[in-house]
Amino acid sequence: MALVTLFLLFVVWDHLSRDAMTFSWVPDFRDSAIPFLIGVTELFLSQAVGLGISIWLFGMVAAAVCALAHLAYVRWRAEQSAENRHVVAFSRNRWRMEWVLSLVGLVLFPLLAAASLAGLLASGRHSQVDPGIAAIVATLLVGTWLAGYVVCTHICWRGTVERAQIDLMLR
User: Fold this and answer.
1) Other Cβ atoms within 10 Å of 39 Cβ, number
2) pTM higher than 0.85, yes or no?
3) How far is CA 101 from CA 109, 119, 151, in A?
4) Range of the domain at 34
5) CA-based angle 55:102:6, to the nearest 5?
6) 107-137 per-position pLDDT tens digit
7) How far apart, in whole angstroms, are the C-alpha atoms of residue 141 and residue 108?
8) Which of 66, 89, 78 lies closest to 11, judged by CA?
């Protein structure tokens, strides 16, 4: 859980920095509030590593909610500015993929957390699974979800920048 949480910190920084480099608008209070909300979630997840898989998985639900909120906010702000017109046209594919990934997290993480609360991820004498294996699998699923964000962001962002550059050169 600690390694996946650390990976989350890198993924969030990568994602926020790419959006900051891609789009242009005059920042205001909201532009500070969303990264801090994400930071609170990251802090909670860091603490939840020591509290157990159930609490950590519920924290990942909050991370998926933050991903959706950030996605909706960036799209809304980017579409308001005429300066972003060319890049927004090429960003829609990335936004669709990230929307799907966020929804997967919003479905998967509560299910995993509920399974954990029901004792299905627990180890012990009455457990149907080997000790810790189910919790490791749940943690790896979360890590896979984050890796999906990295791959999606990298491929789509690179394509967005390249297409926008070509579009500007043709003008």
Assistant:
1) 13
2) no
3) 12, 27, 11
4) 2-170
5) 50
6) 999 999 998 888 776 655 555 555 478 788 8
7) 9
8) 66
